Amino acid sequence: MKDKKKDIRALTKEQLQQFFVSQGDKSFRGTQVYEWLWGKGAHSFEDMTNISKDTRQMLNENFVINHIRVDQMQRSSDGTIKNAVKLHDDLTVESVLIPTPSRTTACVSSQVGCSLDCKFCATAKLKRMRNLNPDEIYDQVVAIDNESRLYFDKPLSNIVFMGMGEPLMNYNNVLKAIEMITSPEGLGMSPKRITVSTSGVPKMIKRMADEEVKFKLAVSLHSAIDEVRTSIMPFNATFPLNDLREALEYWYAKTKSRITYEYVVWKDINDSRRDVEALVRFCKYVPCKVNLIEYNPIGDDHFKQAPESTTNLYVRELERNGITCTVRRSRGKDIDAACGQLANKSKEVAV
Ligand code: SAH
């Protein structure tokens, strides 16, 4: 019986208003319920205290609220928090809160597992089980906002889609979630504080540009040489660098928003002068900055962080060419919460 009920948060505000009208009620009732579901984050119809008992019961008979549940929370010695999040169908995803003195950032998941097969990423080993719904993405952000207020005394300030999954392979739901996160009826956050990180799906990058989205774009580049990139990110064979470059040029022409390239330097993979030069060339196509991120080992001997001297070579060459570059230290490594480590391992840690 329960399975037949529809997830009420799959309805838009207009659909909810129409539903109430079809029940002989006022469309305004739909607005009230919508506010409870999103802005006030109601977990059950019982919470909706300004809605009559009969109406609440009627909603209960027709719908469910598929709210996520933070199943387990782990805290790293550096303050990073990882949530293992249980979904209504018992699948699990992870999200991370990363605190710094000036901001708190939520790193959220967009899929259960991942549809891509990046060789250096733990999530890739899980394969994609399903896309997350907009409300499941939204709930992760709300959970982290609450934790940020509770543990750090301030609201969440930034969101990055760098958890599990490829956001552009779940495009519609990610965009709907962002719409609610930024809407005054939801969390009212500025889109400028949201970054969608992608391995680079050219068609979807162009679509985002056409839709004139206001959030930021990060691309996990890791190599600007096709053979190298394909060997570590096999989907690059389908979406080669030239197509990516063209899509990024299109993005910038439409949005005027600078792109961030994420890049890990690995020993014997992308640590030669040729690799550095290729990156510098790629960076000249579109205004950008480079985040050199630390490799977080995932128990695979093939990938080893290159020595600091190689990272320094990258920094020197990028800066010499006028390209902004930052070197990012990992956060939350001790609880498998760092980039690329999300693989639902919390249970193993707990026992
Ligand atoms: N699919 C999206 C978002 C998830 S991955 C994307 O590819 O951007 C988030 C970031 O973590 C990406 O930049 C990814 O390349 C990086 N990453 C994956 N595995 C990693 C690892 N083991 N160490 C460091 N960064 C990793």
Topology record:
Blueprint (H helix, E strand, L loop, with lengths): L5 E2 L5 H10 L4 H11 L15 H10 E2 L4 E7 L5 E6 L5 E8 L4 E4 L3 E2 L17 E2 L2 H19 L5 E4 L9 H12 L11 E5 L3 H9 L5 E5 L5 H7 L8 H15 L3 E5 L9 H11 L4 E6 L14 H13 L3 E5 L17 H5 L1
Parallel strand pairs: 1-2, 6-9, 9-10, 10-11, 11-12, 12-13, 13-14
Antiparallel strand pairs: 3-4, 4-5, 5-6, 7-8
Helix pairs in contact: 1-2, 4-5, 6-8, 9-10
The structure holds S-adenosyl-L-homocysteine.
Give a brief rundown of this model.
This protein has 11 helices and 14 strands.
Could you characterize the architecture of this molecule?
By secondary structure, this protein is an alpha/beta fold. It has eleven helices and 14 strands. It has helices at 13-22, 27-37, 53-62, 134-152, 171-182, 202-210, 226-232, 241-255, 273-283, 308-320, 346-350, and strands at 6-7, 63-64, 69-75, 81-86, 92-99, 104-107, 111-112, 130-131, 158-161, 194-198, 216-220, 259-263, 288-293, 324-328. Helix 9 (273-283) links the parallel strand 12 and strand 13. Helix 4 (134-152) crosses helix 5 (171-182). The longest helix is centred in the middle third of the chain and has 19 residues, at 134-152. It is elongated. It starts with 5 loop residues before the first strand and ends with a helix. Specifically methylates position 2 of adenine 2503 in 23S rRNA and position 2 of adenine 37 in tRNAs. Pfam families: Radical_SAM (PF04055), RlmN_N (PF21016). It is an enzyme of class 2 (transferase). Its main location: cytoplasm.
